[in-house]
């Protein structure tokens, strides 16, 4: 009798121990699951917070690059060779030259800029003159020529980052002034005993304001807090009065600051 009671007591103890072990196991599993859920929720919250913060920072960074800012820059302006044929048959060959320029602009957005550009080049040229006077007809005269160009440019920056390519187009007016030695009539030309037939004075090849326009591609890099540097290649057209339209290649290097 005592033996049976002892056995039942032992079985009850074993069941109680087994039940306690199961409860402990379930408690540990629940705790582990809660811990894992907490970590997962924390990671998701962290990723979301990082994403929002990154987007806000990116928005703040891009908003302060160019939009709503003025800029001013100086330029080196290389103007390639050009050829102009006047209606009277004279041909002027413009030589290449490195000049200077100034540009002032305003950024309406990160992508759109409107600017005023002023450039100046003093180029050499050869004028092949087709004149009615048989003595001086087809004579070649060399001289210098001043090209002052003022244009309004519309530029579009492809990226809203510090380094970006851009495209641009503009129009304006060019003042071209040149004086070349050339006999206009017998009053200015004559026979010299030592030099032969010579001409005095100057003949005004061109001194007008002519319509001009351009198309441009380039790159730009903002560095430091307010500085930028850029380079561009463009095609420049001059719609000369009393002459065929001439075109030339222009390469520019630009350094400036914005505020």
Q: What's the count of strands?
A: 12
Spatial gap, N to C terminus:
103 Å
Mean pLDDT: 75
Please tell me how large the radius of gyration is.
Answer: 40 Å
SSE layout:
Blueprint: H1 2-63, E1 70-79, E2 82-85, E3 91-94, E4 97-107, E5 112-129, E6 139-157, E7 163-180, E8 189-192, E9 196-199, E10 203-223, E11 227-239, E12 246-258
Antiparallel strand pairs: 1-4, 1-12, 2-3, 3-5, 4-5, 5-6, 6-7, 7-10, 8-9, 10-11, 11-12
Can you describe this structure in just a few lines?
This protein is an alpha+beta fold and 259 residues long.
What does this structure look like?
This protein has 259 residues and is α+β, with helices and mostly antiparallel strands. It has 2 domains: 1-63; 66-258, Porin (Beta Barrel), CATH 2.40.160.20. It is 24% helix and 54% strand. The strands form 2 sheets. It has an 8-stranded antiparallel barrel with strand order 1-4-5-6-7-10-11-12. A two-stranded antiparallel sheet has the order 8-9. A hairpin with a 5-residue loop joins strand 2 and strand 3. The longest helix is centred in the N-terminal third of the chain and has 62 residues, at 2-63. The model is unreliable at 50-63, 132-137 and 181-187 (pLDDT under 50).
What characteristics describe this protein?
alpha+beta, single chain, two-stranded antiparallel sheet, Porin, 259 residues, eight-stranded antiparallel beta barrel, 2 domains
